Amino acid sequence: MISKKNTGNTIVDIARALDISPSTVSRALKDHPYISQATKDRVKKQAAKMGYRHNALAAGLRNRKSNTIGLICPRISMYFQSSIVTAIQRKVQEAGYSLVICQTNDSYEIEKQVVNALYASRVEGLIASCTLHTEDFSHFDIFSKSGIPLVFYDRVPRSYPAQVIRGDDYRGGTEGAEHLISRGCKQIVYISGPLTCNLYQDRYAGFKDALQRHKLPLPKKNLFFHELTLENARRTCERIFSKKPWPDAIFATNDTTAIVAEQYAREAGLKIPGDIKILGYSNDPRTEIIDPALTSVEQFPAVMGEKAADAVVELIRKKTQLKKTMPPIITPVELVVRASTGGRMAGS
Amino acid sequence: MISKKNTGNTIVDIARALDISPSTVSRALKDHPYISQATKDRVKKQAAKMGYRHNALAAGLRNRKSNTIGLICPRISMYFQSSIVTAIQRKVQEAGYSLVICQTNDSYEIEKQVVNALYASRVEGLIASCTLHTEDFSHFDIFSKSGIPLVFYDRVPRSYPAQVIRGDDYRGGTEGAEHLISRGCKQIVYISGPLTCNLYQDRYAGFKDALQRHKLPLPKKNLFFHELTLENARRTCERIFSKKPWPDAIFATNDTTAIVAEQYAREAGLKIPGDIKILGYSNDPRTEIIDPALTSVEQFPAVMGEKAADAVVELIRKKTQLKKTMPPIITPVELVVRASTGGRMAGS
DNA sequence: GGTAAATATGCAAACGTTTCCATAATTAAA
DNA sequence: TTTAATTATGGAAACGTTTGCATATTTACC
C-alpha cells in the first residue's frame, strides 16, 4: 500500500521548511505577542504557500476542548424548531463554535443515544429540547456531573441542574382562555399535547385557572390530550363535530391542530368566528394565510434560540458551575389576534 | 492552580486498573476478534464502573478521521431547506456520523469562511447548497483537491468535480408553463430568482422553451428577476397590478412570492383562477392552506436530502475519487395542481 | 561593565487513542 | 515430540498541536 503522506502539511512541516521550531510556528500562527513580526510574516507566508490547514482535532485533543456545541431537538423541520435552530446556529457560529445537531424524532431511545454520542465527541456545551416522552432526565447526568454547560429550551425538565429557557406557557394558556372568554365563549374545547411534557402542563394550568376565575365549567368531554399530529387532530375533530351540541370555541395548543379544526368546522357548516372561534399556538406562518386567519400565541422562537445560544456560550466562558437553583429564563409570549376569534376589536 | 486530573477516565486508566495493556483495552472495547471473551467482559465492566467515555477527538487524531460530515446551507428555517436538512441529518446519524451544520445567510463571505472552518475541523465529507451569489466555487477546492467527498444539492455548480444533486428544474419550469398554457393563459408574468443561480436558470429555460413551442411571446415587461424575498415580491406585485392590462397568469418560482401575488390579485379585485391563474414553486405547506389553494411544483425535499446524505456516505465508504465527469443526480419534480390554476380537471 | 527586565525562540512532554509488530500461550498437525 | 498455526496480549510509536519551562538575545538602567 502506498502510504499517502499527510494530507496537507503540518506545523512541523512548516517548522522544518523554515528551520525553526514547531512551537514558534504554532505561536506565530496565532499571533502570540512574544514572536517577532518578522517571524510571523515568514511563517504565515510559508503556511499559505504549503496550503497549511489547522487541525482542530489535534488542537482539541491537546487543549481538551472541541470548540463544538451540541444541539438536540425533536425534529428540525417543524416551523417552530427550525426557527430556533436557525437562531442558535447563527449565534453559535458567531461565537466561534461549531454546532453539531442531532434529532430525536421524539424517540426517547434515540435521545439517550445522541446524548452519549455528543458526550463522546466532547462538545463543550449542550443545548437540548427533549422528546415528548422524556420524564427521566438522568441520561443527561454525564453532562451535569462533569460540569459541562447544559441548556434546555422549550421542552425542559422541571427540576434539574441546568439552565432552562422556556416560553411563558402558563401565560399563553391564560391569555388564550381569557381572550376566548372575553369574546363570549362558554363551551371551549381544549386540545392539548400529552401532559408528560412541561409546556402542555403549564398551558393547561393557565387555561384551567382562567376558566375557574370566570366560573366556567370544564367538562371532560371538552378535553383532549394526545400527541398533536395531523392524524390525531383529524380523529379528534371528527369526534368533536360528529354530534351536537357543538362547542363555541376550540383552543388547540399547536397550529396544525387549529388549522385542522378550522377545516372541520367549516365542513360542518359553521361560521368562523360567528358560530365557533378557533385559537392556535405558535403563530406558524400558515396561521396568517388561512382564511379566516388564525388567532395564535406567538412564541418568538428566534428570541428563544438566541437566549439559549447566549446561555451556553456564557456558561462555557465563565465556567459557571450549574446549580439546581439556577432560575429559568422565561421568554415572552404574545397573543396575535386574527379573524378566527373575531379579529382586533375597536377599543381593545 | 489545582490540576484537575483528567475529566473522566481513559483507556490507560482502565488498563492500569486491570493491570493489562492499553492496546488490549482498546481492542476489547471494540470487540476485536483476537481478544478473549473473558477479557472483553472484564474490560467493559471496568469501563462502565469508571464511567469511561470514548474520546472522539483522540481517536479522530490517530485515525485521521473525525466521523463528522459538514453541511452548508443558506438558511435552515426556510421550509424547503429545513425539510432537506432534516432528511440529511437523519440519514447521516443513521450512518454513524455527526453532522455539523453551518448557515451562510446567503452571504458569499460567510460561505468562504465556513468552508474553511469545516475543512479545519476535518469533516470527512461536505454537503453544500450555495448562496444565491456563488458563481466562483474555488473556495471548495481545498476539498476537491484533497479528495474529500463533496456533494452539492439544489444550488449547485455547473461544472465542478463533485457529486451534484438537483431537482429537475428545467422540467419544473416547463411543466408549470405547459400547465398554464393548457388552461388558456397567454400573458404569463414570470417572477424568478437571480439568474446567477443554476436553478433559476434552468427553470427559466424550461419556461421559455415551453412558451416558444407554443409560439407565445415573452415580452420583457412580463419578466422579473430578483431575490425572492417578501419585500421584493410586494414591490414587484405593486408594479404588476398598478396598471392594466393585467396578466392572466403569474408563475412565481417560489411560494412566498406566489402567495403575495395571490393576495395582490385578490386586492385588485381579480378572481382566481377566473381572471388570473397563479402558480408557485416548492409546495410549501402554506400553498394548500391558502384560499384558493396554490398550484405549485413539488420538489420532494426529503428525497433530495436522502440522496445527498447517501451520496456522501457512499463516497466516504468507497473512497471514490471525484471526477469532473460525475453525472448529476436529478430528483423528480411534480406539478401539484390546485384551485389557483383551476384545479384538477375532469379527464386530465 | 553589570544586573535586570523585556523580547524571542527552542525543547520536550502531553492530550487519548489506535495499530504495527513482536511475543507468549495454546492448540492442531505432522 | 517437534513444528506450525492459531489465539491472545503487550510495547511503543504515531496522529498534530500546544505550552511550561528553559535559554538566548537584546535593550534599559544604574
Description of the structure:
The structure is a homodimer of 348-residue chains. Chain A has 348 residues and is α/β, with parallel strands linked by helices. The first copy, chain A, has helices at 11-18, 22-29, 37-50, 56-63, 79-94, 108-120, 141-145, 169-182, 198-213, 230-242, 255-267, 301-318; strands spanning 68-73, 98-103, 125-128, 150-153, 163-167, 188-192, 223-225, 249-252, 277-282, 295-298, 329-331, 334-336. In chain A, the strands form 2 sheets. A 6-stranded parallel sheet of chain A has the order 2-1-3-4-5-11, with helices on both faces. Chain A has a 6-stranded mixed sheet with strand order 7-6-8-9-10-12, with helices on both faces. Mean pLDDT of chain A is 92; it is low at 1-7. The interface between A and B is large, with 48 and 49 residues.
